[in-house]
Structures are given as C-alpha cells and as structure tokens.
Write a structure and sequence with these properties.
By secondary structure, the protein is α/β, with parallel strands linked by helices. It has helices at about 1-10, 15-35, 50-55, 65-75, 85-95, 115-155, 210-235, 250-260, 270-280; strands at about 160, 175-185, 185-195, 200-210, 240-245, 260-265. The protein has a six-stranded mixed sheet. It is elongated and about 80 Å long.
C-alpha cells in the first residue's frame, strides 16, 4: 500500500496534465471549425481518429461514451460516414446548456470571450479526467507485465516471449514460451506462460487495486471467474496466478488463495521466480 501511495502521489496526475493540454487544443480546434458550435454540420468532426471527435462527445451533458453515441445514433460503428448526420443530431440534442449558454437563446449567438474560455477549459477538464483515469488503470498493468518479463528472464534463460496467440490446448506453447494478452480457452489472460516442466500452463493476471473494497472485485471476482473457465477447459495442469499491487484486504487475499489462485506481489517478484523454478522440477 505504501508503494501504491508513493506512485500515486508522484505519478498520479502526470497523465491528467498531459491529457488536459491535448484536450484544450482539440476543444479549441472544434469550436474554431464549427463557429463555436453554431454550425456543427461542419465536417470538422468527421473522421474517427480525429481528436475533435472525442471533444465533440464531451460537449454533451453528461459526456457521451463511444457506445452511447453509437447506440443513440443507431450506427454499426463510430463516426460511420453514412450515419454522420445522425451523430451530429445526437451531439446537438445533448449539448450541455451550462457550458454552452449561447446555443440556447434565439437567435443563437457567438459566445463572449469569457464564455468561450470557460467552456473550453471545462470541457477539456472532462476529457482529461477520463483519459487520465483510463491511463491510471492501464499504465500499472503494462508496468507489471514488464516486471514479469524481467522476473522470468531471471528465473531461467529458457523463458522467451513470443507473439500473442490463442491458447486452445496445452500443446500450443512450447515449454518456456510465454505471451502477453492472449486468449486462453477463449478467455483473455494478461500473460500465458508455458512452465518448464512441459506439463503445465500458468495463466497470469496483473491487478492493481486502489481500495480494499475494490480489491474483491478485481481479484476474487475477475480472476476467480477466469480461473473457473480455464480449469473447466484444461483441468489442474492450468494454474492461475495474479501479480498484485495496491490495496487488498487480507480476507480477499486468503479467499483467493483458498480458491486456488497463486498470489505474487509486484514489488517482490522473487516469489514468482522461485515458483517457476520449483515447477520446472516437476
């Protein structure tokens, strides 16, 4: 927990500051291209990968997710050209009157400098908060996977990382081969590791929890459900493990172990090194 607090205080808002600067530019560009949203029919928000598309979703109050926009526009995919007018209509009908008051008068008018500045900063903050939240969840997982790579290299030179691939049988990976983000029996594992004994597979999940309450969902529910699926497909030769960081209640950890999940801490992966060494001997 102390290490998680240290990371959070030193790195927790770095992603937000970066995302905020990028969002300010995207929101400003969108307002420039649409005459401050008075003319949203401009093709400025067409193009799925244009950052102004994301900015457009966040002009709604509350902001629209990608799935929200697809569903309400009744489109098969985001920003599909044939449904562009439907996307525009959704955005116009859900625009936040608190941030964009100049659009809710007759006739519509251009905003004052103060109104525009407030709208840009407010909207950019919403965009940045969501991006930072997403990055805060994904960055630790990527970090954990890198540290597992290092741990396996320490355990034995026979371990080698390969391109991700579906694992449908115990023979799909040669002993010592492992891959990240692989489907194991149809269920995604953060790492699939063929142990050196040539008989067992270790499906490894990387989990970070920011509270004891959340830890049950992250570990016992998410990893536990995957373990049951892997056990049903492969039986005892498929082991389930979790690399953990952050805040976990003791009860949650004990329950996970009793359910057959092997636990390793990100800050001390020597236990993982010893584990794979032991399994190599049978």
């Amino acid at each position: 927990m102390a290490l998680f607090v240290e990371w959070f205080t030193s790195r927790g808002n770095v992603a937000y500051r970066q995302a905020y600067g990028e969002a300010i530019m995207a929101v400003s560009d969108l307002l420039d291209a649409t005459r401050d949203l008075v003319d949203v029919n401009s093709p400025a928000i067409a193009g799925r990968n244009d950052p102004r598309c994301e900015a457009a979703r966040y002009h709604a109050g509350p902001p629209l997710s990608d799935d929200d926009l697809i569903t309400v526009a009744r489109a098969p995919q985001l920003w599909e050209s044939d449904r562009f007018e439907a996307f525009v209509t959704v955005i116009q009908e859900t625009t936040d009157p608190l941030r964009f008051p100049w659009l809710f008068v007759e006739p519509k008018r251009v905003p004052t400098a103060e109104e525009r500045d407030l709208a840009v900063k407010w909207t950019a903050g919403l965009v940045a908060a969501r991006r930072a939240s997403t990055l805060r969840r994904s960055e630790p997982s990527r970090r954990q996977e890198r540290q597992v790579d290092n741990a396996l290299a320490t355990a034995s030179p026979k371990f080698s990382k390969i391109k991700a691939r579906p694992v449908t049988s115990m023979r799909d990976l040669r002993p010592g081969a492992y891959s990240g983000q692989s489907k194991v029996a149809g269920t995604r594992a953060d790492l699939a590791i063929a142990l050196l004994d040539g008989q067992r597979l270790l499906a490894l999940e990387c989990k970070v929890s920011n509270s004891e309450v959340n830890s049950y969902k992250r570990l016992n529910h998410e990893v536990g459900n995957k373990r049951r699926a892997w056990q049903q497909a492969f039986g005892d030769p498929c082991l389930t493990g979790a690399v953990l960081a952050g805040s976990f209640s003791v009860e949650t950890l004990v329950a996970a172990q009793e359910a057959g999940i092997y636990l390793f801490w990100e800050h001390d992966l020597n236990s993982l090194v010893e584990f794979v060494k032991i399994t190599a001997s049978g």
